[in-house]
Design goal:
Largest sheet: 9 strands, mixed
Mean pLDDT: 97
Number of helices: 11
Strand content: 15-25%
Shape: globular
Helix content: 25-40%
Low-confidence stretches: none
Distance between the termini: 37 Å
Structural class: alpha/beta
CATH topology of the largest domain: Aminopeptidase
Number of strands: 22
CATH architecture of the largest domain: 3-Layer(aba) Sandwich
Bound molecules: manganese (II) ion
CATH superfamily of the largest domain: Zn peptidases
Radius of gyration: 24 Å
Length: 465
């Protein structure tokens, strides 16, 4: 009797795996397999957008530029400088009734090359880097790194670089001090153990043929680059080259229940929302998928969510629907609803002291919703209205999707943010909603396949509402 009452009244969240059938398990594993394959080809924002475009093209989406007018059911996208992308399916309802937006980001923490990167010291050639996003620097030494990006020559020619993914290609690494001589380093605070300026990539050691000039190893590297890509040192100034772990995404654990891989923040939400959108046909409210760039460094710049490029995309939709008028864009945003689909800190039993156990996102317990983010007294938080939280809960419950409503860490410990506030500033109702991750921002992050599937189901249900 009391047992039943407890079951009825308590908010108890069970592990999702306990309730999956064999068929569901198969579906969950199938989705994760596709996700891992995608992740392995999409380590940078440019690669993600390139592959997302291919998938969108295959599924009947077209560049919005190709449409003179739009009507319900039309599938469109807009690609912003190869680094961010917005997709939409025009809904049956008037667009004035608001958009249903899901927004993630496709950039991940990494090391970028400096504009003048190549140096030689004591017979070794290095590329200097400047890290991108919040990393623990020591995690990026002594691991295999691959090089991805573009070099643009002054004549506009674009050279794509991708070295280190194929087993037959070389990789690169950043050296660390041997423990035998690291006594001083080991006494330092963890954050100071490896300095930003020491994140220099080892790239070569053979000197250019017995000439008597200085910097022969650097010359040899430049000669190799010149022969392979036709570039000179100055061309590196107009390049965007990212160093990312060479590891492949893999199934993790004896039970293969988890995914370990680089860049899951936030490509796990980006991929699942993209995959869900590809299965939509007719929607009531216009469905919009945002794959944004530069979230990890504050969403600034013309490919970040702070730019007006997204407004431009929605304005184009209004123009081509023939419904634009003064303040129409503001009106549309005010009636819009959004899931800011970004990852959440998964509860880690090894570091339990940073979390409030009652308000943490657990691996395998489904999609994680943050009513608010921010830190220490909700500073900088975008706080979802209770009415909206209830509306989202209702969708999840009627679609039988497991969810947890949580906070990122203990009250006075720290916190974080996403692109949620940017759309909230425009007037939309927004809640953060994503997959819990272990080792977030590390070169190798961990997620649960159950939660990946829950995210996919959530995004699909939200758009189908
Ligand atoms: Mn993120
Ligand atoms: Mn992040």
């Amino acid at each position: 009797m009391s047992e039943e009452l407890k079951q009825k009244l308590f908010n108890t969240k069970k592990c999702g795996w306990e309730e999956v059938s064999e068929n569901q398990k198969e579906e969950i594993f199938k989705l994760s397999k596709k996700y891992m394959d995608f992740l392995n080809k999409s380590k940078t924002e440019r690669e993600f957008i390139k592959n997302a475009k291919r998938i969108a093209d295959e599924n009947g989406y077209k560049d919005i530029i190709e449409f003179e007018t739009l009507k319900p059911g039309d599938k469109v996208y807009f690609i912003n400088r190869e680094k961010s992308m917005y997709l939409a399916i025009i809904g049956e309802k008037s667009v004035e009734e608001g958009l249903h937006i899901i927004g993630s980001h496709v950039d991940s923490p990494r090391l970028d090359l400096k504009p003048n990167p190549l140096t030689e010291d004591t017979g070794l050639a290095y590329l200097k880097t400047h890290y991108y996003g919040g990393i623990k620097k020591y995690q990026w030494t002594a691991i295999p790194l691959s090089m991805h990006g573009v070099i643009i020559k002054t004549n506009g020619e674009k050279i794509e670089i991708n070295i280190g993914e194929d087993e037959n290609e070389p990789i690169f690494t950043i050296t660390d001090l041997l423990p035998h001589l690291a006594q001083e380093q080991m006494e330092k605070k963890l954050k100071d153990g490896v300095e930003g300026e020491n994140l220099q990539l080892l790239v070569g050691s053979i000197p250019y043929n017995n000439s008597n000039i200085s910097e022969k190893v650097k010359l040899n590297i430049l000669n190799i680059l010149n022969q392979k890509y036709g570039i000179v040192e100055a061309d590196l100034a107009s390049s965007e080259i990212e160093l990312v772990p060479s590891f492949k995404a893999r199934s993790l654990g004896f039970d293969e229940s988890m995914v370990a891989g680089y860049g899951q923040d936030d490509k796990v939400c980006a991929y699942t929302s993209l995959a869900a959108m590809m299965e939509l046909q007719n929607v009531k409210n216009t469905a919009v998928c945002i794959l944004s760039d530069k979230e990890e460094i504050g969403s600034m710049g013309n490919t970040g969510m702070e730019s007006h490029m997204f407004d431009f995309f929605i304005s184009e939709i209004l123009n081509k629907l023939g419904v634009n008028k003064p303040n129409q864009l503001d009106k549309v945003f005010c009636f819009s609803k959004m899931l800011s689909s970004d990852v959440d800190a998964g509860f880690d039993p090894l570091y339990s002291s940073v979390s409030d156990k009652q308000n943490s996102g657990y691996m395998g317990k489904g999609i994680s919703l943050n009513k608010y983010t921010g830190s220490k007294g909700k500073a900088g938080a975008s706080d979802a209205n209770a009415e909206y939280v209830a509306w989202v809960r209702n969708i999840l419950e009627k679609n039988d999707i497991k969810y947890q409503i949580v906070e990122l860490g203990k009250v006075d410990i720290g916190g974080g943010g996403t692109i949620a506030y940017i759309l909230a500033n425009k007037g939309a109702d927004v809640i953060d909603c994503g997959v819990p991750v272990l080792s977030m921002h590390a070169p190798f992050e961990v997620t649960s396949k159950y939660d990946i599937y829950a995210a996919y189901k959530t995004y699909k249900a939200f758009w189908q509402e």
